[in-house]
Amino acid sequence: SATLFFIAPAALMETEGFFNKPVGLGPFRFVSCIPDSELRMEANADYWGGAPRLQSLVIRDIPETAARVTALETGEIDFTYSLSADQLPALQENDELTIDSTPSYAYYFNWFNAKREPFTDARVRQALAYALDVDTIVADLLTGVGQRAQAPIPSTIFGFAPQEPYVYDPDRAKALLAEAGMPDGFETTLQWNPGSGPQDRELVQAMISYWDAIGVRVENLEKERAQWLEDLLALEWDMNFQTNTVRTGDADFTLRRLYVSSANRNGYANPELDTLLTEAAAASDQETRAELYARANAIIWNEAVGIFPFELLENYVYQQRVSGFVPTPSAVPTFQTVTVEE
What we know:
Layout: H1 10-13, E1 28-34, E2 38-43, E3 56-60, H2 65-73, E4 79-81, H3 88-92, E5 97-112, H4 122-130, H5 134-141, E6 146-148, H6 170-179, E7 186-192, H7 200-212, E8 216-222, H8 225-233, E9 239-245, H9 251-259, H10 271-282, H11 286-302, E10 306-319, E11 322-323, E12 339-340
Helix pairs in contact: 4-6, 9-10, 10-11
């Protein structure tokens, strides 16, 4: 699991220049930093978890993906991660590289504004879920970087409980729309912010195409991040597509924060769900918490508060001479156990 609670020496934090030469409790000590270029660290022999096996660690800032891949292939760097799906096939053919993949804490979701017609009706929300061929989308767009999700939170998270999937069934989707009084479909909008996750543009286009096939005509509203966030928080949208990361590895971080009625993040309100999430946050027994979260997962999924189609994989790619690396779902790699053969 991960944490959002970081410990720093209180006596030094007010010292001028502290954050340019910080002191922490990790396995490596700060040596130097060149902004937008590199961070240099050295082993902390006194680390409480045991001294790292590497004597030094240099983290390079290479923002362009293609440049990072080139640096890896030429041996300029030993390790990288969070590469796009289109970069992986060629790297898999390189015998000098290792690719470690693991399910992550991140996932895609498509919310419905439950305060706006027609998304006040669960049948409409469910119809749009049945209209998507998730397995085909994964195979076409997310090979190596994503997989079908099974719940409103990823399978890596404490409190995850697998749900019955919304299988691809356009006839059932049309029937649900007819039951809801919209046999001819309807028009709506989808907002999103580019750069949220892998293949986001292609995913939006694919989903809009599937919805069009059942008579739901969706206007694609691509927005700059500032405008997208302002509209998201103001509930000025019909549907909203984005990624999210459960950073702590615990369901409470996402489920209670986003789905209690008082949060009002997507217009959905359910007193039973509020009670489950509040009790789960207060409980100290993990079995009790797991049971409460299982019930909460089921409500969010079955009510189709959103569509939760994909959970993301984290790919760590490194030279064969690197050993001892342990993948983590948090997408924050740790190097305490790593060695590099000279």
